[in-house]
Amino acid sequence: MSDAVTQKDASHTVRVIEERLAPSIDDESLVARTATLIYELILLVIGQGRAQGRIKHHIEHVRGAQTLMLDIKGLNTLDWPTVEAMQRAAAGSLLDLSFCFASPETLEPLTSGRISLALHIGTDTRALPLAVYLEPERSARRAQTQLIDWRASCVSETADQTLLLELVGDVFHMHTTMPAQMQVSLEPVHAVDYSAKRAGKRTRDDATSSGEDRQVLGYALHFAGVPSFSHCFLEHLAQKYRSRWIGAMVIFPHQRRAMRDDARTETHLVAPELIISLAKAAKDQPLATRFATRGARQLCKKICS
């Protein structure tokens, strides 16, 4: 069952979800709790304010199963704080959250944002099938082929270059088989609110810095053309780089119109993108977190356009 959701129709949406769950769940209190949780999760996505119109959801559950599948469609982006908030709302019931970029039935690329959540709704919590990411053995890594011209980049410290190359290697080896067309680019995270500049405003941080004097707080790595992956991969990275971690954001595949030379418009599919940001130094982490999105010019442009 698929239904559209907005923030204004809470009671109606919860009732619709309850009606969907009732045929496969006999316990009325469990139906009510599960419906409320599903709505809260959808609302968190809507609250992020980056949806393609009305969010749609689809529920799959069979009688007797302790796991429920919830698909949420119509997303533009999803950031790491929202994923963490969804984990807190689920209070241990979230088994997996997958960022889906291809149809599981046809393997064809999706043209809009979709996430798939596995939720535990049973009473037996002794052996929950939690999704876990296991980093491949170092010997299984292929030679690094993504070269970065450090001379033209914002990264001057050799230790930072090594750290960023390690992160690039992590993403390019998230699966045993990875798409050949994946690309990576790097940009600085400044103490500047580029979203305010786009709106014609100047912030206090921006007013005191200009040109090359802008303070570099961190680095944002853009991975374009990533395959579908689980949130547990991001959890792994957040733990591995915890002293430098700023955050992550997924930009889902979407259609974009462009004007051709003959004045006609054409539509093309923009590939999914994963952006991971690290602080320049541990001491910069608190301030860098404030500017994780709005202080990276290219990232800000992508999510505001």
Give an overview in words.
- The chain is an alpha+beta fold.
- The chain has helices at 10-21, 28-47, 80-90, 158-172, 194-198, 204-207, 231-240, 285-290, 297-304; strands at 2-5, 51-60, 67-75, 77-79, 94-102, 109-120, 183-190, 216-224, 229-230, 245-251, 254-259, 265-270, 273-279.
- The chain has two domains: 2-120, Heat Shock Protein 90; 141-304, no CATH class.
- Strand 11 (254-259) and strand 12 (265-270) form a beta hairpin.
- The protein is globular, with a radius of gyration of 21 Å.
- Mean pLDDT is 84; it is low at 203-212.
Q: In terms of structural class, how would the helical and strand content be classed?
A: alpha+beta
Mean pLDDT value: 84
Q: Any idea what the radius of gyration is?
A: 21 Å
Percentage of residues assigned to helices:
25-40%
Structure annotation, total helices? 9
Low-pLDDT runs of 5+ residues are 203-212
Q: Count the E strands.
A: 13
How many structural domains can be distinguished in the coordinates?
Answer: 2
| Gross morphology | globular
- Which percent band covers the strand fraction? 25-35%
